[in-house]
## 1
Amino acid sequence: MKVVVTGGAGFIASHIVDGYVARGHEVFVVDNLSSGDKKNLNPKATLHAMDILDPKLQGVIGEIRPDVLNHHAAQMDVRRSVADPVFDAKVNVLGFLNLLEAGRAAGVKKVIFSSSGGAIYGDQEKFPAPEEHPTRPASPYGVSKLTGENYLVYYHTTFGIPYVALRYANVYGPRQNFRGEAGVIAIFIDQLLSGHTPVINGDGKQTRDFVYVGDVAAANMLALESSFVGAINIGTGVETDLNALYAKLAAGLSSHVAPIHGAAKEGEQRRSVLDASRAKKILGWTPKTSLDQGLAETIAFYRKAKPS
């Protein structure tokens, strides 16, 4: 198949590009390289260095005539979405609409959308949260991701374009940008390797569902072949609090540096964990990588990238 992957030079999507290329698909990457890195780009993929808001995108998609759009380009910083909700909406809503219109005109047969379990559900009532959980996003970022899902419903109902919205838990692993607000594991590793003292917001007892990027990429491989239409959680169903996470990272790096506890982030979810039973039932997907194994592989990547 011909597959366009937006954000394909970035953290998550570059692993997805690798997977599609390995399976023999013809892959085209659309990435403005604002946060992506050409070093992440698979040499067998064709790069179009452009923004998803660019009016010329329709011409590019029309020339490629892809079978599938896999959309991962996004404004993904929750804090920035709070500080500048207009910019967040421009990228995550208008940019996505520009891509959807281009895909519709080019006769695209399917859309795979990177959504967010934690940001869409907001403060959870049920642990782990299933896809039927009420959606009460507590940030403009969550609102924009939910809006993207709603547009997918519209394009499916009106134009018959199937879609899968993969609602990710907290994704981590090699290639994650430690400057990204969401990449707490990458941030902690970078700070410890740099000899700095990491800061944990609040008491550190807030929990997250950490899912390894290789497992997320595997879900995208399976979603390409699935006929299912709708939303699917991609997570481990396991909560890990930040204190326990930091202890694992410090041990993995043989560090005895104690973290500093700063002020709690306003509006931060206390607990976030996803029920991925639908992914197992529909896609045959389960996470294969334990947190300890994933952290070890991530630490090894950053040690190599940033030798001490």
## 2
Amino acid sequence: MSKINKLLKKLGPGLLFAGAAIGVSHLVQSTRAGAEFGMGLLWALILVNIFKYPFFQYGPRYASATGESLLDGYYKLGKGILIAYAIITIATMFTIQTAVTIVTAGLAASLTNGLFSTEVWTIIIIAICSVVLFFGKYKLLDRLIKYVIILLAISTILATLMAFNNNTNEIILSQFLPEITVEIAFLIAFMGWMPAPLDVSVWHSLWSLEKQKTNKNFTYKSSLFDFNVGYIGTVILGVAFMSLGYLVMFGGDTSFSTSASLFSNQLIEMYTSSLGEWSYYIIGIAAFTTMLSTTITTLDASPRAMNRTTKLLINKDFKHGYLFWLAILSVGTIFIFFLFSSKMGLLVKIATILSFLTAPFYAIINYILISSEHTPKEYRPSIKLHILSILGIAFLIGFSIWFLVKGI
């Protein structure tokens, strides 16, 4: 037990990354991919995780190598780059936050048998998360997320294994490339948040710096180990969620609803059909706590990033800058939610597609920064990472152009 505790103490930002990633991309997009396309988009899940890997890794790599966040690095590359980051973040952070919060609220409504409406749950969840972040800050977030991720990982893997055991049909692994507009749009949305939006690399660098403040033994080597644990875990669970959607819903008469509360019921029932009705609340709580972890990590990260961005751009430190941006994001999320409360599917689609279309920006800037003079030579990428980075940039740009030509 002591060895497990020691291992958990070494982990932090990587599991926060997993907490931010294993949300809409897994519970919503991956299960929907399996339910609607079987295992036909497994190639996309694997490729996008491979090609996004270096750009996510450059977050903790740069932070450990320099003691600065990626935002500081962006500023060194040019003030215009940081301004571009601020514009993209302001344009996307409200939609992203609303998309993850609406799913969390839907799960809460399902678990409480409609005690409160999804709208009321949204306000309650945003309020609770804001209070937790105000008083607990990074330390509480770091402790909380570890147990949430472990609970979800165990329940998801167990449900997947039992679904395979109960399956009596032939497993079909044939792959395909979508051709019609609606399928192309889904593919881009699916890859947009698989395993997470690329701006999470910025968040990861900020979390790494916070971890260093609380744990002096959090070195460059341990930060990369921490990142790899979180990243590989998200990939494995992505495959598991797709498999669940395929084994339980593919080829059936039902499809996932775009309503948050109805979708949440379908999601939980997908688990219980594999594990049994006894697991309803166990799985429901696991799914809810996972989405809650995504909600709270994104609610922490965007204000943290915007606070640092503002400080760098105007060269002035605001005492309550983080709280200011936290309040702005909370109010903005609730406002957007009430505009799109009945259109969860549309909201998720918009957020995920925007994330994919902005991914080349983060990929290129992260690669330039980690390869530049601003990163100590011994911490720059290996030849293999250079090659993977170039291929990854080509992959992201290529699919973005393909979507703009074919998918609109």
